[in-house]
Amino acid sequence: MSKEKAKIPRHVAIIMDGNGRWAVKQGLPRIKGHEAGAESVRAVVRACKKAGVEYLTLYAFSVENWIRPREEIGGLMQLLRLFLENNEHELHENNIRLRVIGRMKDLPKLIQRRLNKVIEATKDYKSGTLILALSYGGRAELVDAAKKIAKKAVEGKLNPDKISDKTISEHLYAPDVPDPDLMVRTSGEMRLSNFLLWQLSYAELYVTDVLWPDFREADLYKAIEVYEQRHRRFGDVQ
Ligand code: IPE
Ligand code: IPE
Ligand code: MG
User: Fold this and answer.
1) Structural domain contains residue 151
2) pLDDT per residue over 36-84, tens digit each?
3) Residue 39 domain-assigned?
4) Which residues of the chain have pLDDT under 50?
5) Considering the domain boundaries, does residue 196 fall inside one?
6) What are phi and psi of 62, to 5 degrees?
7) What CATH number corresponds to the domain at position 222?
8) 223 closest CA partner among 17, 47, 91, 22
């Protein structure tokens, strides 16, 4: 493992950042940046399929994002609803399964229903998995995992002395999904912003100055190319 060069990442996770700045740069309201960002999502889903990436996780809305102005949150929820309406057929055509990670119960009821409908309709698809992180926080996920584990311990179903890395992983939102190999962040910020804190332990990080609404297939392939040049050591020697 240590001497091998990385291959195509099996799982790519993206912090889709810079929508607001993209809009402001062109004198447009922030929501126009989110609208344009939806086109980048479509492009990246297609590019992942072409490149053979099995899992794509997109950070679409964080637990922290609820502090944004009400109109922006409303606009984002409306865009999410439209995105589902306009793109469900593409998931079917491409055999792609939709999943959600995050505190889905925080989302408006209508959105929850629409999401659940698409999740159910695509659950058996095998060509790829699109995971939307919605009302997601890495710490919230670990808190939720800790609660599940503690309950089992209290009920006598789990021995606290036997808790391991695997136990934590098994109680996360999508326990069957492998950890991301590559984490991409757009718009140049060098931070994780509470994204997949547990799962990114050994991910390769790639930050680009490109703003999310400008991110297209070629930008994803560039990130994958850079990833392929990395030597993943996982703590081992050269
Ligand atoms: C990312 O773009 C989308 C969400 C967080 C929902 P931003 O809205 O954070 O854009 P900037 O960072 O303000 O440019
Ligand atoms: C991270 O972007 C969350 C999403 C992309 C959904 P933010 O724009 O919210 O992160 P900060 O505030 O710059 O750290
Ligand atoms: Mg931002």
Assistant:
1) no
2) 999 999 999 999 999 999 999 999 999 999 999 999 999 999 999 999 9
3) yes
4) 1-3
5) yes
6) -95, 165
7) 3.40.1180.10
8) 47
Is there a contact between 168 and 38 (Cβ–Cβ < 8 Å)? Answer: no
Nearest ligand atom owner, CA of 33? 1
Residue closest via CA to ligand 2's atom 1 equals: 193
Dihedral over Cα of 107, 109, 114, 118: its sign = positive
User: Of ligand 2's atoms, which has the minimum distance to the CA of residue 212?
Assistant: 5
Predicted pLDDT at 186: 98
Q: Tokens standing for 149?
A: 């584990």
Which range of residues forms the domain containing residue 187?
A: 11-137+181-229
Query: What pLDDT score does 229 carry?
Result: 94
Cβ contacts of residue 205 below 8 Å, gap of 6+? 183, 185
Q: Has residue 149 been placed in a domain?
A: no
**Predicted confidence (pLDDT) per residue in 2-15, tens digit:** 445 558 999 999 99
Entry pTM: 0.97
Residue 74 exposure: Cα atoms within 13 Å on the Cβ side: 3
135 lines ligand 1 (CB under 6 A): no
Q: Ligand 2 centre and the CA of 225: distance in Å? A: 25
Mean pLDDT score of the chain, rounded to an integer?
96
Number of structural domains (the chain) is 1
DSSP string, 173-198: SSTTSPPPSEEEE-TT----TTSSTT
